Amino acid sequence: xxxxxxxxxxxxxxxxxxxxxxxxxxxxxxxxxxxxxxxxxxxxxxxxxxxxxxxxxxxxxxxxxxxxxxxxxxxxxxxxxxxxxxxxxxxxxxxxxxxxxxxxxxxxxxxxxxxxxxxxxxxxxxxxxxxxxxxxxxxxxxxxxxxxxxxxxxxxxxxxxxxxxxxxxxxxxxxxxxxxxxxxxxxxxxxxxxxxxxxxxxxxxxxxxxxxxxxxxxxxxxxxxxxxxxxxxxxxxxxxxxxxxxxxxxxxxxxxxxxxxxxxxxxxxxxxxxxxxxxxxxxxxxxxxxxxxxxxxxxxxxxxxxxxxxxxxxxxxxxxxxxxxxxxxxxxxxxxxxxxxxxxxxxxxxxxxxxxxxxxxxxxxxxxxxxxxxxxxxxxxxxxxxxxxxxxxxxxxxxxxxxxxxxxxxxxxxxxxxxxxxxxxxxxxxxxxxxxxxxxxxxxxxxxxxxxxxxxxxxxxxxxxxxxxxxxxxxxxxxxxxxxxxxxxxxxxxxxxxxxxxxxxxxxxxxxxxxxxxxxxxxxxxxxxxxxxxxxxxxxxxxxxxxxxxxxxxxxxxxxxxxxxxxxxxxxxxxxxxxxxxxxxxxxxxxxxxxxxxxxxxxxxxxxxxxxxxxxxxx
Amino acid sequence: xxxxxxxxxxxxxxxxxxxxxxxxxxxxxxxxxxxxxxxxxxxxxxxxxxxxxxxxxxxxxxxxxxxxxxxxxxxxxxxxxxxxxxxxxxxxx
Lengths: 619, 93
Prior knowledge:
The complex is a heterodimer. Chain A has helices at about 15-35, 40-65, 70-75, 80-110, 115-130, 130-135, 140-150, 155-160, 165-185, 190-210, 210-240, 245-250, 255-260, 300-315, 315-320, 330-365, 375-380, 410-415, 420-455, 465-485, 490-515, 520-545, 550-575, 580-590, 600-619; strands spanning about 285, 385, 400-405. By secondary structure, chain A is mostly helical. The longest helix of chain A is centred in the middle third of the chain and has 39 residues, at about 330-365. By secondary structure, chain B is mainly α. Chain B contains 2 helices and 2 strands, in the order H-E-E-H. In chain B, a hairpin with a 2-residue loop joins strand 1 (about 50) and strand 2 (about 55). In chain B, helix 1 packs antiparallel against helix 2. The longest helix of chain B has about 40 residues, at about 55-90. The two termini of chain B are about 35 Å apart. The relative contact order of chain B is 0.14. Chains A and B meet through helix 5, helix 14 and helix 16 of A and helix 1, strand 2 and helix 2 of B.
């Protein structure tokens, strides 16, 4: 074995460390619950609940700091599969899933299930089609894999530019969600909250790159899981007497149906003139929870599902984690773990939505407009709910209750009159998951800028060293995301769905051909990338001006772009020369699960050659 | 009439790649078929109830997800078995 190869043994104390992290979060909740009973103010409890875990994440990031290139880009390729599963799941779901998906299920009920299903199926697709082969290739970024596979610098640079839209959109969406939580619970304006959140995310990525991202991401995932499970289990016990909300919320569905009828909610049919997905501003609920295909038709549901599945399968921020485990098998297992965690979340979100809707609708159905429940006043103060007796009938109907989509998870413990510490806990957990996802997107974006654009364009020996270029790109990307969020009014859910559509349309075809078709050439990969990107970019620009079903049009374009990319890639590959011998050998090696990563072997060979030539010149 | 069957220079590799391809096609087809069937039959199945859920809703909210989890772990195990057979063949040759 060459001197370059390193032991891939994971740290044996990881279980103990994360046991301590879990205990610290649980202890914090218990202490704050006691302090709440002793008279601490709600503001103080919320600040402690959010700030203490943030300090913990920064301490973990500082502890994982590194100046080693392999550690910075791949966490030393020794992350255990479960921990990589934590980080992958946090990136796939993110704050957008935690708050916006839960809110979408609240509004659309049945029809929103396409989103959770799409994420989960996408992880299965990526585990089968892409991840094991990317692990064997060992490249640090998705564009560098394409560049190495086809021996093309231009392809690498093009892929790097084309991965900017999906990654930047997701980064902005996650930062906005985290800033929204920070501005609700900390004494910060939204603008200051954006800057604060961006600084925290950039610091955790700057200190140790993928290494600090992995270990802070694991802690953030654990906080997210605790914060999601605790209030929901308590709500489930109060409403159904059983602590398994995923399976017991079915018992509340008939009560929910009755409450919906009492508040005047009637079945609806898909409306082609209106957007089927709820926006971020407070809106009335218009569709019963269980009604199938009321906002989306069957075909639109399927299109949204397939678009999200393709987008998740080749999302650059997920694929960049393909090189962090010790072996191809570990990498495959880590995606299976991530799929388990994402599926558990996708099963849990409808339970949150159903419980929140039941409690809210039962309360407003029973209360006269002159004596609104206390939670309604409290949520109105936070701009999460607006209610008024617009038709003067003395009661609040469903059409008169306007709810903010992204505030549903926060509203549940308030509406159920649970201790305030649980509201703060669910906010802190959603913020933790948003920070983990934002960190992944920031790392993906900036390392690609540094590795695939800067280092490929500027090959002078005096150029910035590798890590300094990455740090500069991280700082610049975080700053750009901040400025964008301060200027633009971004809907996080719509931005995320567009990003998944971009990723699927642009990268699915070239990746599929690069890994599964040895005959594919660089020209074919160029054609697949370009065709898919042009279709989705043109459709997105047109639907931005056209209005209507923007989300569905983008999803259809994503599927069309992927199909067109496949056809263009195959046609261009068959039309031009056959692949070179080096490309064929690379393809064969990539399909062999045994042995070191191809990139690591190449690096070791280069280091050996450099050492030999240095020795020869010194003699 | 006789035909010349091309002889592979690495039969273990070819068997591994064929097994991997078949498994990938089987898993993806199974998963996408399950989701498509659940979507297509959801309205009809909603007239039946399971664990207090309408069956069509239950399948999309949980049933298919549980199937995907099982498929992912089964795939991991089967692929490891296929990889193991290739490395065993490599050691023998």
